[in-house]
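Q: I'm building a small set of examples for a reading group on sequence design. Run inverse folding on the following structure and report the sequence directly after it, with nothing in between.
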């Protein structure tokens, strides 16, 4: 349920455990779908700010403007657990198959 302004992204904090540290188990894998590329970037930066500096690269944004190499690498990183979550547009859902995806959010 939405409690805060959509542009604050505060309702997404449930995805990142409070006080998470480098040696803690990772959170559940997640995808957040956005209609706006700018919202996708802003949300990823918001979630990164809730992580320690050494873990901020675990949440990324992903869209059709990225290079093919980046997209392929990030899908692999998500599958193996090196990336915990992606803030993306509908382009990610086209042809992607990540079997252990725990949470999918439509923003």
């Amino acid at each position: 349920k939405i409690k805060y302004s959509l542009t604050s992204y505060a309702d997404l904090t449930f995805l990142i455990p409070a006080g998470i540290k480098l040696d803690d188990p990772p959170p559940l894998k997640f995808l957040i779908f956005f209609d706006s590329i700018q919202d996708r970037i802003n949300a990823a930066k918001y979630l990164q700010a809730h992580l320690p500096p050494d873990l901020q690269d675990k949440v990324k944004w992903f869209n059709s403007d990225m290079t093919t190499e980046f997209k392929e690498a990030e899908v692999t990183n998500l599958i193996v657990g090196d990336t915990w979550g992606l803030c993306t547009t509908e382009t990610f859902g086209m042809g992607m198959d990540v079997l252990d995806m725990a949470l999918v959010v439509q923003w």
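The radius of gyration is 13 Å.
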